[in-house]
Amino acid sequence: MNKDIHKIFVDIITKELNLPTTYGTDEQGNEIPVVCIRSQNIKLYTVPYLQITVSTLQNKIFSNRKEYREENITDPETQQTITKYYEDIYINENRTMQIDMYSKNNDARDRFPEVQACLNSTYAEQMQEKYQFRIGIISDAVNLSGLDGSAELNRFTIRFNCLTWDKYTKEVDYYQSFRTQARNTNSNIFADFTIENNSIINNWKLL
Hints:
Number of helices: 3
Oligomer: single chain
Structural class: alpha+beta
Shape: elongated
Radius of gyration: 27 Å
Distance between the termini: 51 Å
Number of domains: 2
């Protein structure tokens, strides 16, 4: 994946439910979100209309593997071929995603089945193909209205599984330069030296 999974779901829900990207700003000039990633810094319940947050409830890693590869590039200054070594780490995980819907009017109660339906929409399938992840279309919905201490607030929570993968790459010194020791068995002399690019670059240092 090359995009945050939360942002993908924000995009899917906003498009499939035909929601605006914002309700404008409040009296303090803060943007009033419609669909967003759950955060302690985002103010909710400031409007009576539907607001939706996306978050990860928990995740389980079922594959964590590492691979090495090399790439030959041309040095722009010397025009010589240089071999660079890279470490690729692949993470496969099963996430339990959570989508919360809030409203002071009846929008959350009336429209939460639409959120469940949009997980199986054509657009959701296109996003899965584009970013290589999978949505578990069987979900659970819980009515949490009144949990936040407001009798006027409707709140519904949907949870479902999502299979994702991520790739992390960085350049490494993969067997390119390392310190080592050698011993002459006849004279019992030890030496410390460095090997780089299959060559001994430091003078022998007797130990």
